[in-house]
Amino acid sequence: MCGIVGYVGNEQAAPILLDGLEKLEYRGYDSAGIAVCQDGKIKMTKAKGRLKVVGELTHNGETLPGTLGIGHTRWATHGEPSDVNAHPHMNKENSIVVVHNGIIENYLKLKNRLIEKGYEFVSETDTEVVTQMLDYYYNGNPLQTIIKVMHRMEGSYALGIIFNDHPHQLYAVRKDSPLIVGKAKSGNIIASDVPAVLKYTRDVYFIENEEIVCLTEEDIEIFNVDEEIVHKESVRIDWDVNAAEKGGYEHFMLKEMYDQPKAIADTISPRIKDGKIEIEELGLSDEMIRGIRKIFVVACGSAYHAGITGKYVMEDLARIPVEVEMASEFRYRNPIVGEDTLVIIISQSGETADSLAALREAKGKGAKVLGIVNVVGSSIAREADSVMYTWAGPEIAVATTKAYSCQLVSMYLLSMKFAQVLGRITDEKMLNLVEDLKKIPDQVELLLSHKERIQKFANRYLAAKDIFFIGRGIDYAISMEGSLKLKEISYIHSEAYAAGELKHGTISLVEDGTLVAAVLTQEDLYKKMLSNMVEVRSRGAFVLAVTQEGNDEVERASDYVIYIPNTNKYFTNSLAVIPLQLFGYYIAVGRGCDVDKPRNLAKSVTVE
Ligand code: M6R
Q: Out of 47, 63, 94, 201, which could bridge 53 as a Cys pair, Cβ 3.0 to 4.6 Å?
């Protein structure tokens, strides 16, 4: 999604804006632009395509001198990607300039009113409406004007705004789109996400909904809509700056796959004490856990897949009914939740618009909401009743790997904890599970070390048109993730099927040479899966099998086998996902795709 950056200080703004926007590139975008104010004159450069186009057009910012500026990477929503639709957007007099992340839902109504008043629009964007409204209501007082405009806008926004008659002030405001403020030595910075400011500061303020920020070189003032000052503590970001860099790897995705052993260990270790699961931040007493009658896991994309795995584990271990639902569905269907329902929202970014709306829906109905979130201080983390962080560190590649792996182990930890409290697990079984859990990081490391083998195999399928992933039970959950990973970065059509469902239609698509990736790690479903593999193979499919060591019989029912180390039946997804991630990655690399920034996708989906 769009990224915004703004700077006011004693250094040249343009290079800082370009640098910050580069750090936000991972969010996904199709055009970019910057505007800088010097001596009350605002100049801007914007262009369709990559940020480097703006860098070239401005000679890395040299042609836009000035120490106050805003910048933007745009992910098109209203109007095609083009120079004119790119942000920033200025009013006719070039006195007000705006960058925007989000969607103004009532923009057409507002636009028509402005047209009636004689305003002309040059772009198709909803953002230009914001600029023109600021122009219309401007009374010389930026704060009052912004508040007036806020009252008229419906939708979501994080805005960076400059008024040329306040050439030392940078304004910003947010509603349902992320916005942070960083306090640097040379000045102050706004951004959509922490990586954009890390080079300059580690002290950031998380801006809440309907707060307005006024930055000068020295000061940060935060106001509410009643123009009252809001006092806020800054948060120290203790990430290693390198965590948001590629560190010698060809792509962030590859680096992040390699981060997985540490990320998983960091997520697990603080929660194991004396062979038992202790999740201090859970915010649920044992009594409360005993009172839970139903769990909803609500999420999007890969986080949703982690929820499906979680359902299998939680229901089997703790015997609590679990329903897993896509946030975009849950939020609009009046779900039946009450005080005895726990709603778990899983999200890497903590800013996904649908997941955030689902959280509010659940809270509004009286449910207790637990967030499983990666980005510290994000909206979902702040609005949930309690939050269990996944300690994956910053994830930059659009295709999630390490955050997903941490979401999986978080769901295992929760299931084990609930089973423990409900007395549904013996001490001996718990000890065995804890031992297996602790082994996952090393087992993942081992699987990663076999990457060349998977690369070789992937290279044979670069021209594939369709690839199917099949599995049963928990292996169906990982098939969905394997399929998504492949299609989102390689653009090869792919579907995941519960293997038993194939014969109800899909098997008619299997023809000579169709690649079917079959995951079979569950002992009780092993024979059934073997039959399904034979079924597709006898119709011409080439079968790639992912199974546990020792399942030698699989060799006879498949054409290529990848073995994962042995673990108990609940944790196999954490291991099976590694070859599937590598497979998707190497197919995408081999096809020359932009692995870290796949077309049409955004890392943080902050609009519906
Ligand atoms: O930030 P979130 O975890 O809420 O994001 C959810 C999905 O948008 C995300 O998992 C998406 O499906 C990824 N591209 C998958 O790799």
A: 47
